[in-house]
């Protein structure tokens, strides 16, 4: 993870170059300009989802299929607080993030830790089982009825000729702010240094006195909190249901592999690229799923760089 952190500037430059190039070709006020703006805002949320996934993989070397289910829990926590307690959906971050952090810590210490060092199949089946358990628990508790959360102060904003709802802008700003906070945690704190040491060499980290098991749990908890935060931020934009996080889970894995497994800047750049590709694909491939363009780019990148844009060759 250390070598990837030093390339953060390159990751941001690539993402900005992609956005600037697409916008320059679109022309202000065009349909393409609108798609670029929407894709950029949505890509910020994708980046936060992927950051949680890549953080867990980079340190624990586990592919977490329960990530989308944890995101759904964040959506339901926000919906309940907004409709039941009248709390502003964005202020519910103060509840959903600590809630998912604690849940992630408990899940890692009591369940995931038992598969550490075991077979990949056992880890995949465990996280898949956790996802199914959480989704069915939500189905039992809230049935299959869908929920929506409206933002009373939502208003359209004009940006260089394109229009974006305030809720989308706030979701993007919140996602980028939280991604920045995770970045600062990893690069500017003693805890972040310890986490990077465990990611680089767990045996060596243990020999110098670091509590590797505790750091694994904290990392998994931080990644789960990212999923919960992403769920809160998108709640005003989506329909909340027990399986709402599945699509984000799939896209999150695409972003992680596209950017490079374990690469934090790759998650940010990959999220923005996927968001833009999805929206532009809806315009230039009419009648097709917007994800068709995403998977086409995904395959092309893997043919060119199997390790992802910012990954290191195995």
UniProtKB/TrEMBL annotation:
Segments passing through the bilayer: 34-58, 65-84, 90-108, 120-142, 162-186, 217-238, 250-276, 283-304
Keywords (A to Z) from UniProt: Amino-acid transport, Cell membrane, Membrane, Transmembrane, Transmembrane helix, Transport
Membrane topology: Multi-pass membrane protein
Pfam family, one: BPD_transp_2
InterPro entries in the record: ABC_transp_permease, BCAA_transport_permease
Localization (cell): Cell membrane
Domain of life: Bacteria
Homology family: Belongs to the binding-protein-dependent transport system permease family. LivHM subfamily.
Name this protein carries in UniProt: Branched-chain amino acid ABC transporter permease
Species whose genome carries this gene: Nonomuraea harbinensis
Lineage of the organism: Bacteria, Bacillati, Actinomycetota, Actinomycetes, Streptosporangiales
């Amino acid at each position: 993870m250390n070598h990837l952190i030093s390339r953060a500037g390159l990751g941001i430059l690539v993402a900005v170059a992609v956005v600037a190039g697409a916008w320059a070709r679109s022309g202000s006020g065009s349909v393409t300009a609108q798609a670029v703006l929407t894709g950029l805002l949505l890509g910020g949320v994708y980046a936060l989802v992927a950051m949680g996934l890549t953080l867990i993989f980079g340190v624990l070397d586990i592919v977490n299929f329960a990530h989308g289910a944890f995101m759904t829990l964040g959506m339901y926590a926000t919906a309940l607080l907004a409709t039941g307690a009248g709390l502003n959906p964005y202020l519910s971050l103060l509840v959903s993030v600590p809630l998912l952090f604690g849940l992630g810590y408990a899940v890692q210490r009591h369940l995931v830790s038992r598969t550490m060092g075991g077979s990949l199949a056992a880890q995949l089946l465990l996280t898949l089982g956790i996802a199914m358990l959480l989704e069915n628990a939500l189905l039992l508790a809230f049935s299959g009825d869908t929920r929506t959360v409206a933002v009373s102060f939502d208003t359209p904003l004009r940006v260089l000729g394109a229009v974006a709802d305030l809720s989308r802008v706030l979701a993007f700003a919140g996602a980028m702010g939280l991604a920045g906070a995770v970045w600062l945690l990893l690069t500017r704190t003693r805890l972040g240094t310890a986490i990077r040491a465990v990611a680089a060499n767990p045996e060596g980290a243990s020999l110098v006195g670091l509590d590797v098991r505790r750091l694994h749990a904290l990392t998994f908890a931080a990644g789960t909190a990212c999923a919960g935060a992403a769920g809160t931020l998108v709640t005003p934009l989506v329909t909340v249901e027990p399986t709402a996080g599945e699509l984000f889970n799939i896209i999150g894995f695409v972003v992680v592999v596209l950017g490079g497994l374990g690469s934090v800047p790759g998650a940010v750049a990959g999220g923005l690229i996927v968001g833009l590709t999805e929206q532009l694909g809806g315009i230039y491939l009419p009648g097709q799923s917007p994800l068709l363009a995403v998977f086409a780019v995904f395959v092309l990148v893997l043919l060119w760089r199997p390790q992802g844009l910012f990954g290191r060759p195995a």
